[in-house]
Amino acid sequence: MIYLEKQDWDMVLLDLMLPGMNGEEILSKIAEQSNTPVLIISAKLEQQAKIDALRSGADDYITKPFDIDEVSARIDSHLRRYRRLQELPMKKELRYKNIVIDTEAKKVVVEGKSLAFTAREYNILVLLMSSPNKIFTKENLFENVWNEPFYGDDNTINVHMSNLRSKLSKASPGVEYIETIWGMGYRLKS
Amino acid sequence: MIYLEKQDWDMVLLDLMLPGMNGEEILSKIAEQSNTPVLIISAKLEQQAKIDALRSGADDYITKPFDIDEVSARIDSHLRRYRRLQELPMKKELRYKNIVIDTEAKKVVVEGKSLAFTAREYNILVLLMSSPNKIFTKENLFENVWNEPFYGDDNTINVHMSNLRSKLSKASPGVEYIETIWGMGYRLKS
DNA sequence: CACTTTTTTCAACGATCCTACATAATAATT
DNA sequence: AATTATTATGTAGGATCGTTGAAAAAAGTG
């Protein structure tokens, strides 16, 4: 345990049959205190030992006698998984013309300028930009943005579209973003 | 593959011996295109098949006949690892404006002064500071801090936000830390 | 069990946003 | 050109959401 605490390890290979130590205790300490993946190597063949170890924090359990290539492949597999998740806390970004939306930050930038939209407006814009070629009917829009069934037309959507256009064209005059397809719906102008 | 692409799965259990499909191809497609953990279940006992699968993206390889408890424990182990890494790719020290959090000691220092927060307040603050640009919806907050599903709004979160702000501004008057994004959520003020 | 601390609930108020309505504009139809 | 159908826009309640203080409930402590 002294060694384990001294630095951050990428992975721990733990032999449960080490003399003079309780492997199970070590395992649960590591599992509690760190994120380090732990692979157990053990001569214990009993299923229950395996299951207990996996349940108390082990990432894998390999029984002796083991195939060195398999162990190596398993180590690499865990490292791969570990690194991949560490590194990619994805950012999703939508782009269309000079509009950029960072969907994590829910931030809309038009021509370099950050624009403020209401929640409804924002959701409509995201929906349109998620399928730039699709024509969204009012029903589509309503059911996606409002999450409610659509009972025919009031002109709520029209108003939101109007406001969206107005804000967008204030930020970037002369550019048309949203196209009206008469009798059908709306889509981004291509 | 049709089913796989339709939504984000927490995990895929893949039987390599499915009739009419090439399991190896499916595996590498998943591995390339997503972060989903893949556990292989297979009747192939040859070491080389195991090693190949692990090397081409599988997270585990379980051979038939298998012990259902072991499989279950392995599934949980991988899910645990996956979730844990998803949630805390955390630095030991979080900084934002004049706030410094030592996440090991769970100590918050604002403008040199050590501040006392309750557990809830602390967790909320850490979450916000872990992604300073992200807007956290109430659902986000609830599911991360409470670890419970979110059934619509009571105003518990509002109250905690209010208390957080109040404590912070007592320690450092005039600075605004937490921004309300109307109809969307909260985030740190940039 | 009594006491403290923390969390949640409640209520009142203010800020912001949504949508119904009226009216205008535009496109399709005759 | 006139008529009808559809969409656009300005405006004003009313609805929703957020804030805050206080009180109730729950959790933690000795």
Task: Provide the low-confidence segments of chain A as ranges.
Answer: none
* CATH fold title of the largest domain in chain A: Arc Repressor Mutant, subunit A
Identify the most extensive interface between protein chains. A-B, 36 and 37 residues
Output the radius of gyration of chain A.
Answer: 28 Å
> Strand order across the biggest sheet of chain A?
4-5-6-7
Query: In one word, what is the shape of chain A?
Result: elongated
Spatial separation of the terminal alpha carbons of chain A: 62 Å
SSE order of chain A, one letter for each helix or strand: HEHEHEHEEEEHHHEE
Strand-residue fraction of chain A?
A: 15-25%
Q: What is this entry, summarized?
A:
2 copies of one chain form a homodimer. With 190 residues, chain A is an alpha/beta fold.
Using brief descriptors, characterize the structure shown.
homodimer; 190 residues; alpha/beta; Rossmann fold; Arc Repressor Mutant, subunit A; 2 domains; three-stranded parallel beta sheet; 7 helices; 9 strands; 43% helix; DNA-binding
Can you lay out the helices and strands and say which pair or pack?
The structure is a homodimer of 190-residue chains.
Chain A: H1 2-6, E1 12-15, H2 23-33, E2 38-42, H3 47-55, E3 60-63, H4 68-87, E4 93-96, E5 99-102, E6 107-110, E7 113-115, H5 119-130, H6 138-146, H7 156-171, E8 178-181, E9 185-188
Parallel strand pairs in A: 1-2, 2-3
Antiparallel strand pairs in A: 4-5, 5-6, 6-7, 8-9
Chain A binds a DNA duplex (30 and 30 nucleotides) through α7.
